[in-house]
Structures are given as C-alpha cells and as structure tokens.
Amino acid sequence: MINIGIVGYGNLGKSCEALVNDTSDMKLVGIFSRRDIKKDKFYKLDRILDFKDEIDVLILCGSSDKDITVQGPNLIENFNTVDSFDTHKKVYEYHHLMDKKAREAGRLALISTGWDPGLFSIIRTYGEAILEKGQTYTFWGKGISQGHSAAVRNIDGISDASQYTVPKDAVVEKVRNNEDIAFSPEMAHIRQVYAVKEEGYDQENLEKRIKTIPNYFDKYETHVNFISKEELEKNHKGMPHGGRVIRNGKSPSGNHSTMEFSLDLENNPDFTAAIDVAYARAVYKMNKEKISGALTVLDVPPKYLINKDYEALLKENI
Amino acid sequence: MINIGIVGYGNLGKSCEALVNDTSDMKLVGIFSRRDIKKDKFYKLDRILDFKDEIDVLILCGSSDKDITVQGPNLIENFNTVDSFDTHKKVYEYHHLMDKKAREAGRLALISTGWDPGLFSIIRTYGEAILEKGQTYTFWGKGISQGHSAAVRNIDGISDASQYTVPKDAVVEKVRNNEDIAFSPEMAHIRQVYAVKEEGYDQENLEKRIKTIPNYFDKYETHVNFISKEELEKNHKGMPHGGRVIRNGKSPSGNHSTMEFSLDLENNPDFTAAIDVAYARAVYKMNKEKISGALTVLDVPPKYLINKDYEALLKENI
C-alpha cells in the first residue's frame, strides 16, 4: 500500500481524498489544512511533521501562487511530493528551487503535473520529438476559466459570473487540415460570459467594461449574456473543462501527419486529482529506486504510473 | 551527432533513410540489406560487423515475422537497436529473448515502437493509469491494411486489391458520449475493398469469397468494389493510415472524463520512421547513461526523445 497525505482541502483536495479512498493500492493517512476541521484523518498543517514516517507521498493541492511555492520547499525536506504548480513561466525557477532541496534530502518532488501543464506537456514533447518539422497548436475548452470568471465578478455592478473558454471549431478544422494560418490563442478561442447584473447598473455599459478588460478579454471575441442569479446557479456553476493539442508535421518527402490529443472533462478537479494520484504512485516507485530531486512529467516513464506489473504491461498494454 | 545504421530497405527503411538525412543531430552511417545495392552507403548485411564501432544505434526495418526476430537477437550483441516488432501477442516472448542478450552485452534494445504498438501503447497506459475505473477503445483507420489487401489478392480471379479499414463514425460518437456498448473491433470497423477482377471470373462469386475469408472479413461489415486496374493504381496505392485510442473513466463522484488520442497519416511508413528515429535518439542517450537490456516505449521518459536540453524543455514544453 502507498500511504498518501493530502495538503489543502479545496476542490482539488476533496477530489484527491475521494480518489485515494477509491484506489486499491493506496491508503489515505491524513488531510492537512490550515483550517481546523474536526473530522477523522484531518489535521492542522503545522502538525504534519508528526506523520513524516507514515506518509510515502504528499499531494499538494493548494494554489500555485500562494501555497505551493511556499509549502513545496518546506515539505520536500521530509516528504516526497506531487504538485500541480501551473504558472508556466515560473516552472523553471520552481524546479530549480525544489531540485536542490530534494536532492539534499534524498526526496523526490514531481512538479507541475495535471493536464496543462502535465499531460499536454507530454503530448507537446512527443509531438515535437516525432514530427520535428512541424507546428504545435494548443486549444483550451470548452470549459470554465476561474481566472476569467473572477475578473468579470470584480466589476462593480456584476454580482456573479461564469466565463467559458470555447475553441473555435473552424480554427480546429483548419489546423487539422494543415492550412497555413496565423495562429494565436486570441484568434482560436471565443470567451462566453454569463453574468448577473446588480440593480441600477446599465447593461450596455457593463458589457463594454467586460469586453475591454485588458489581456483577459480585450483581444478576444467575447459574448456577454446577462442572466438571472437562479439561471447562473443552475446551469453555470459546474467545473467542466477540456482542451486539445494538435501537432502537424511534414516528412522529408512531403507527407503530412497529424497527432491530436484531447480531453473532455465533466469535472476539472476530479481529473486533475486522477493525474496527481497516478503520479504519486510513480513518485513512490521511483523514490524506492533511489531516484531523488525535482522531476516533471517528462522525466517519468509511463510504466511507473500504473498499478500493474511489467509482465502484465508487456502482455496487455503494448 | 548520433550515428545511425538502417537494416532493411523496404518502405520503412527508405522513410528512415530520408528522415535521418534530414535530422540535425544524426548522421547516416550505412544501410544494410540482403540485396546487393550499388550505391554509396549501401552494404550487404553480412558486412555489418565491420561497422560495430561506427554505429550508435541500428534501426531494424524488416518484417516482424521473418526478419526482426532473427536479426534482433543476432545484432543486439554488438549494437544498440530500435525495432517496430508489431506482433502484439509475441511481444512478451520477444522482450524476454532480447533482454537477456542485451544485458549481457551492455546494449540497449528498444522493441515494438511505432504507433500501434508504440504511441497507442503509451496512451493506453496513461489512460488506464489515470482513469483506473474506465474502458479503453482502439480504432484503426481510415487506412490501408497490407495484410487484408494481401488476403484479397490471394483469391484466384483477383489480380490486385487494396483494403481500407474504416472506423464507424457512429461507434466513435457513442464511445465519446460514454454510451454503454458491447464494443469489439468487428462492430466498430468497416472493411472497404477495392479489387481488380481477372477476366472470366464471376463478380458475385468473387465478392462472396472475399466476404467469407475467415478472421479477415467474415465477421465484419465488408463492402467490395470492383474497379479497373488503372483506377486502383491511381487512387488506392497510397499508404495512408491512422487511428484513435479513447479512454473513458468515471470519478468516485460520478463525473466522466474522456481522453482521446488520434493520428491522421498521409504515409504510414514515413510516420513510423519518425517514431523510430525519435526512439533511436532516446536509445543513444539512455545507453550513454549505462542503461542496458530490452525496453519498450513504456520504459522511456518523454524527455529522451527530443533534441532539446532539459532547461529548454522546462521553459518551452511544460
């Protein structure tokens, strides 16, 4: 059995809790939170060192900006960790920070897993390695973007909002057909906003304010729908997401190849948890083999993720 | 520079030759064939030991049944190898054979790469590891199956033929929508035959004979089209192929996730060569790190496939 600890009890922590309890080769040792939750197996985070010898792998479920960059470097001295650090631009820096400490402690930190970064990073790498002369395209959605929803909610006069990122089907088709297009996230996605207006505010003015939020909306085709609080609650409070990576390449004799990987997820945290849990298994196995330091998904052979012996993999998965 | 040798000069060998010559970190040392080809860099296979110290990795491009199982065990004593051994049922046995010899010689054999087995094996493994409670579906095509085409050509009265394996769109849709279906390759694919009839044979009778070939056609929805030799040559002698792997799973709270990977290839040997070449790079790097034995794609971390240093991967691919 692989003994798992969970740090943080937001959406991702809750999905991890349910999945670890449902996974045959794992046991949930404890959930560690800054809050004082009075339930079995819940502990205040400052007590975590008491569990140093009982936990094989910690899954860090906090936010990238406030939690992981602080918790990761502290916890790696005594635990193996898996995290979904997702600030693409800071992965290099964060890796460097974790790698040194992890090596010194003989621990293993698997950083930046999830689906992007994570599975999409893997597919981008396979795509680029196999079709060296080619182009990679990443689409996100259809799914709710928490950051964009929050940006809309921050506007004075908006009481609540949800924002869907939606890839443009016509652009996906053009990419699949190897058409030569000037690709950018802005031209490839629509932003679909569902917002609840407070009384006494002008709808047209609010719509204009949403559409001109810099970076978030100003360069995108944005559609704003004002709806009732009830409709928002009923239809737009789920956490669906997804996306696709497409790699097009051309062989020396001019033949095209297209590799495409896509995800369609009813619940984003549930799927991210599933990836975290599989990589926790890999971390456990690799650390047993005396591998230490900070790794990414690009360092992990697929075989380590699965609860199956090598002979069965050769017979069933190849 | 990684020094590459190619064994076998059929379609795959030719695609590898062109690609290695077009790849910036590789150099083609020689092409080894049983035939005596009078061209620069071509050598008879029995001279290959002369190149033992010049070649880093050999790509074996012969057929699975007749060539690779004989050549692999002989060559691994003196060379690192990559092959596309694709008889799924014999991978375990072949791995065992190669592993022992490779370990003894300190060489590395990467067996059974390509797209199925190969990339599809990787996706099946990621899918099963991440969505443990779920189901995997593999579709092949639209593409030409050499084996099925040959089976049709073997019929007395057929002078030439091409057979396309075509996945049924309706079944793909059902799988994507998580419908509960009794899936089998037979119910998920159509076999589309284009055949050229010899004079004096009865068309209806030939069609019946094709449709009843055991295993190849008898359990499939098969469509037979008799066409002219000219039309077959013009429209059905390419080597397109492709396929898709879909993994559906359900989280403990009942949320569905779908992972889908698909390939759309204008030329099957060109794409298989691209995979072989990327894995030749991985074999070179891993053997430099003193890794020996027989490996499959499930043993290889994605980072080894690409011609890019680790720092750049962290910055650009994660």
Outline the fold blueprint:
The structure is a homodimer of 318-residue chains.
Chain A: E1 2-7, H1 11-21, E2 26-33, E3 42-44, E4 57-60, H2 64-75, E5 80-83, H3 91-105, E6 108-110, H4 119-130, E7 134-140, E8 143-144, H5 146-153, E9 158-167, H6 169-176, H7 185-188, E10 189-197, H8 203-211, E11 221-226, H9 229-235, E12 241-250, E13 256-265, H10 268-288, E14 293-295, H11 310-316
Characteristics of this structure?
alpha/beta, 27% strand, homodimer, four-stranded mixed beta sheet
* Secondary-structure content class of chain A: alpha/beta
How helical, in percent, are the residues of chain A?
25-40%
How is the main sheet of chain A built? 7 strands, parallel
* Sequence of secondary-structure elements of chain A: EHEEEHEHEHEEHEHHEHEHEEHEH
Strand adjacency order, main sheet of chain A:
3-2-1-4-5-6-14
Unreliable stretches of chain A: none
Beginning-to-end CA distance, first to last residue of chain A: 26 Å
Average pLDDT over all residues of chain A: 97
SS strand fraction of chain A: 25-35%
Oligomer: homodimer
- Silhouette of chain A: globular
Count of individual helical segments of chain A: 11
Question: Which protein chains make the most extensive interface, counting residues with beta carbons within 8 Å of the other chain's beta carbons?
Answer: A-B, 68 and 68 residues
Cα-atom radius of gyration of chain A: 22 Å
What is the β-strand count of chain A? 14
